[in-house]
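Ticket #4471: structure export looks truncated?
Reporter: QA, pipeline team
Priority: medium

Steps to reproduce: submit the single chain below to the structure queue and open the exported record.
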Amino acid sequence: MKHDLRFLIVLSLSTLNMAAESSLNSTQTAIFAGGCFWCVQEAFDDLKGVLSTTAGYTGGHIQNPTYDQVSHGNTGHYESLKVIFNPSIITYKKLLEIFWKNVDPLDDGGQFCDRGDSYRSAIFYFDDEQKSIALKSKNDVEKELKATVATKIVPAVKFYPAEDYHQEYHKKNPIRYKFYRYRCGRDNRLNEVWKK
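Actual output as written to the record:
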């Protein structure tokens, strides 16, 4: 009897450890483009359940693009952010809610003071489930704003991390970052769009 009880306790603890490890190892990836990737990274960086964020480039036809190439145009790339997250802590749907509130979804020519193709907003989906959730969220935003949303929803393609000096820019250079964000009018426009 004692032996059976000990076995059951060990089995239960083992099962709990496996469940905890499975939860920790369960990750998904999301990619969002919302204008300046410094600002998009700040929006997602410290969320519970977000394991990492990487500023970079995606959607274009040039391999291993540089910031200069992307910012000058004609690469097809968007400034974007790759988010690795644990879906048992934060859902893809919740990430989308945060994304929408940090972009002007009505602007098809860029975001805020940053103009041009590389600054357009987009959601890059990895599978049919993400696509379905993203399309529904876009529909919900159109209903809320009573307007056509310009944000593209497109399949994810190869993502290229940006140069090191762009990573965590809002933390490395807080004064310059805040000045840029203020001068670009990002928060004022977000307040107009979302009536914060």
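Status: closed, not a bug. The export was complete when the record was re-opened. Leaving a note from the reviewer for reference: Residues 135 and 153 are 7 Å apart (CA to CA).
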